[in-house]
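Study this chain:
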Amino acid sequence: MARSASESATGDAGDAGDVRDAGDAGDRPASPAGPSVSGPARAQTGPPAGPPADRPAGRCATAAGSPAGPSVGPRPGPPAVAVLRQRLPDTRRTVAALRAHPSGPALGLLLCAVLAGAFVLVTTVSTHRLWGVLAAAGYAVAALAASRHSAARATALAAVTTALLPLAVLCAADSAQLEVRVVEEAARDLLRSGTPYDTAPAEPADYNPYLPAMALFGIPGALLGLDPRWVFALCFLAALAYAGTLPPAPTAPKATPTPAAPKTPRVTAGALTLLIACPPVAMTLAVSGIDLPVIGLMALGLALAARGRPGAAGLVLGLASAMKWTAWPAAAVACALLFLRYGRGSAGRLAASAAAVLAVCVAPVAVRDPGAFAEHAVAFPLGLADVPSPAASPLPGQLLATALPGGDVVAVTLLAAAAVAMALSLVLRPPATVTAAVDRVALGLLAALLLAPATRYGYLLYPLVLSGWFRLVGADLGWFRPAGSDIRAAGSDIKAAGSDIRAAGWRGPSSSAGPSPPGAGWTAWRQPRRR
């Protein structure tokens, strides 16, 4: 028996055929010759050569290709956007196919070795050059191991030789990017004077462009001599691992369960090692790591929001927002996600908890010395301070700020316009799943990367990790979809199916026509009931 429209509405989003069959949900009287045929079976068998004797041939749906009248087949496919989304390759399956191919892992690791070697030739930073040399050798060794051992062992070897080993070597050599030293000095200032900001900065090394919570990662170094990069890496990996193993949330008030949803996702060691072995992640982890904990907390906060835990999500996103400005879009997107799926109360709880954490971490420092806070955390990142920022990658915002008179104001204005556009998109089309949420955050951060007057290529790590991690582990935490949109889509399909039937030339039996006459294999069609 055909599925009802409500059942079709709660089906998997990718099952376009189930949605199209929603128009077939009307009652179908069974003929004496046997049960009625519906769905794909009807399309294969088709009606008999002609309609019953008391019905005109021109007013009955006939088989495809029959001269008696037009055919009533399934509706055309979904819209073009849905088709493109369905045909986009699944990252997890693509990576699994490459790793399963006999020569796939070895070729991929060899390509990474070539890229690391080329990076050595083009970079002018000594720390980057040292990482490139070590990473090129590590990827080459891992590629050789992939030709003789399993892909999992080769990936783990690549993670060790290209990220952890270079990190240990650079820490032993006391070689790091400037931001690592900035965090260490900020922690010392915080412990000494209660503020992580220098009151009289004179050069770029004196500026701390981060929010006060970032100095917490330098406290182990100030007290125990531990390099902050180890703390960055531990926080990053722990947050991502937990974000991919959260248990399913209960059914949301504004959501309907998806029958085809998997159970609790699992994050294997292979997923983490593959992420660590990715060249941009491996290099950032070894030479700096300043953005890694922010990315990990952003991913964890969005995952908690998608699972219906607004309080925990607000605490995590509030901590990330108290570390760096780049985490603020994630908090806004998480609020929109909760509002769509769990209602206004859940979104309000997330906003309240995030604001509380942000106030506790930032307000005391900002009140203690407002001028230093504005100079370090606002003016310097935007390139508006007296000392120019070393973040000067040749991207559109930076080029505008340097090539045009008053270009910094133009770049900041465009950046504000992009923020307003993102806010409007959250109001008009909020994300419904965690992958949609991380994609929205990645798009907003990419726009900020392009338009900010002081920026660098390293910020591309944000959209790369946020958009790739949940796809890599296969943990699409958006297992529930808003019921209203599904019901509206099913209603549109039912109306369209009724239009197709009426276009075939038959408006259904009249109330005085009585039961449908017998006909071998023939099913009487009726219009969908009007509400």
In short: Strands lie at 255-257, 480-482.
